Amino acid sequence: MLTSKFSSCSNIYTFILLFLLLNIISLCSSIILPTTLILPVTKDSSTLQYITVIGQRTPLIPVNFTVHLGGASLLVDCESGYNSSTYKPVLCESKQCSFAKAEYNACGSFCLSKPRPGCNNNTCHTLDGNPIIDTYTGVELAEDVLAIGSKPVVLVSQPKFIFTCIRSFIMTHLAKGVTGIAGFGHNSTISIPNQLASLDSKFTNKFGICLSSSTRSSGVIFIGSTPYYVYNPMIDISKNLVYTPLVKNTFTTSKFSEYHVKVSSIRIAGKNVPLNKTLLSIKQGLGGTRISTTTAFTILHTTIYDAVKTAFINALPKNVTIVEPPTKQFGLCFSSKNIRNTNVGPDVPVIDIVFHKKSAFWRIYGTNSVVQVNKDVMCLAFVGQDQTRAPSIEIGGYQLEENLLIFDLIEKKIGFSSSLKLQQTSCSKYEKTS
Ligand SMILES: *[C@@H]1O[C@H](CO)[C@@H](O)[C@H](O)[C@H]1NC(C)=O
Ligand SMILES: *[C@@H]1O[C@H](CO)[C@@H](O)[C@H](O)[C@H]1NC(C)=O
Ligand SMILES: *[C@@H]1O[C@H](CO)[C@@H](O)[C@H](O)[C@H]1NC(C)=O
Ligand SMILES: *[C@@H]1O[C@H](CO)[C@@H](O)[C@H](O)[C@H]1NC(C)=O
Ligand SMILES: *[C@@H]1O[C@H](CO)[C@@H](O)[C@H](O)[C@H]1NC(C)=O
Ligand SMILES: *[C@@H]1O[C@H](CO)[C@@H](O)[C@H](O)[C@H]1NC(C)=O
Fold this sequence. Notes:
Elements: E1 5-7, H1 21-27, E2 36-43, E3 50-56, E4 61-68, E5 74-77, E6 88-89, H2 95-99, E7 106-108, E8 123-130, E9 135-148, E10 153-166, E11 178-183, H3 192-199, E12 206-210, E13 219-224, E14 229-230, E15 235-236, E16 242-247, E17 259-261, E18 265-268, E19 271-272, E20 282-283, E21 286-287, E22 289-291, E23 298-301, H4 302-315, E24 322-323, E25 333-335, E26 341-342, E27 345-346, E28 351-354, E29 361-364, H5 366-369, E30 370-372, E31 377-380, E32 382-385, E33 393-395, H6 397-400, E34 405-408, E35 413-416
Parallel strand pairs: 4-11, 5-10, 22-33, 23-32
Antiparallel strand pairs: 1-10, 2-3, 2-13, 3-4, 3-9, 5-11, 6-9, 7-8, 8-9, 9-10, 12-13, 12-34, 14-15, 16-17, 16-35, 17-22, 18-19, 18-28, 20-21, 23-33, 24-25, 25-31, 26-27, 28-29, 30-31, 34-35
Subcellular location: Secreted, Extracellular space
InterPro entries: Aspartic_peptidase_A1, PEPTIDASE_A1, Peptidase_aspartic_dom_sf, TAXi_C, TAXi_N
Family: Belongs to the peptidase A1 family.
């Protein structure tokens, strides 16, 4: 049952002002439910994390969250400055505890300090954590008021939104001012899209991410049903996507909710890159391909990286000079002198990620495949790394930017758009200006 309220007043004009929401709701008479919620996302220039603002607590305050696509819950630092009169721990064996299908269904009755958010006796616990430092721990489940979205803002207050409460020391290496991790995972009832859909079926267990490549203008996460519009001109960017099935990884428990796809090959300038196919499937939780918003540049298993690098060099025009990488981060750099610019970025060989069948591929153009590191040098924006204990391919933020990805959690499939720049539009044009 839906008990969330929201306002469709046009006078909410900046998202940061959402703490004024309660006043605005009381001023508005028209209450219409949106079918699609808009969540602005900014890119932090120092950590390259994608940040969104969600209102929480009473009194309602804006809280900064790092977006974690495969996160199981809305994870909040409850130790530093969590102050709310509506915080309510989820009790052991309660309705909310069984709804959350808490991993291990652990009942915590051992908080030795005086009660505070994250530390109460007889409360429902689950396992969650910080993917950036790869650290997971038992966390207290709790409920509180939530205000999510921009123009309109949806207020979830009755019932309240279930989240997880964690100690501060786990929340390190997050961008400055961030005190939580917003999880959009598929295999968790309390992730943002699944929990909103359970509050109101209008939010159809579907969402789309469209990350901005700029640290100055926001991109967007659409939650709910398509169409997903950008403006000037108005285009439904959810059309003509290539879909591939979501692949389950049921081995590593804390990563149940991550998004995996089946990559069957990689093509560079139309030619297949020779790859060890064993690495492309998930075996006992390892290998395969994951999509990750907490990885800045796509990470490839070293042998895949070496093959991609060789194929990319071979496909570059002969008048492009390979140079010593000026930064340790990247393994292949070249002079940008003879490289033209196009509307989809530097004119370099296109990289196709081919999914479960040959006709389903996602094309990566220069704007997402190379990065200009200084005036004369650009580098292949992929990182080679020992991935023996991780997915063989982790598709990261730089490759996802200015593309729309749709995650359909009912049909269990993921849609990829080719660069929106081909349509002369961008992820930052989600706001209707007229
Ligand atoms: C918490 O909020 C209450 C009521 O709004 C206020 O009286 C109190 O000073 C706040 N405490 C802190 C530590 O901010
Ligand atoms: C939890 O229970 C223990 C043992 O009864 C008690 O010492 C502790 O103060 C309680 N903690 C809270 C947060 O209520
Ligand atoms: C959230 O991020 C914004 C923008 O970086 C910043 O101005 C604000 O202080 C942050 N909020 C907190 C509570 O740190
Ligand atoms: C998570 O995956 C398990 C195992 O495949 C499945 O039984 C369960 O229903 C899934 N939960 C959600 C919320 O998708
Ligand atoms: C392919 O990769 C697997 C897993 O790392 C490895 O066991 C196998 O030896 C590799 N095959 C070849 C031909 O290199
Ligand atoms: C570099 O080579 C490409 C492809 O062979 C050619 O189209 C381009 O004109 C050349 N550029 C210069 C500056 O010579």
